[in-house]
What does this fold into?
Amino acid sequence: MPAPAPKYFKAWIIFFAIATIGGALLGGIAGGLIGVVLGLAQVDLNVIKIAGGAAGFVISLPLSYFTFRWTVSEFIVKELTAPPPDPATPPAEPPRV
It folds into this structure.
């Protein structure tokens, strides 16, 4: 039985938040470092923008991938593969007369 829609939504929200915020932070750091290095080398600003954006995008890809794998594993697969709960034992029948 598939997980209900709120579970999928929760997994997506967590993935989206971590991948977006983390990707922006890592991408900004990588792009900033590339910008500093290329700026010191006196490269044209348009080239720095493109290189910094490309570096930020490439750096954020693994974060997005691993965050997706973690959220799917944690919130969807774990629930689908969990053993079903023990059914309640039926009440004992009264003795027959």
About this structure: Residues 5-79 form one domain.
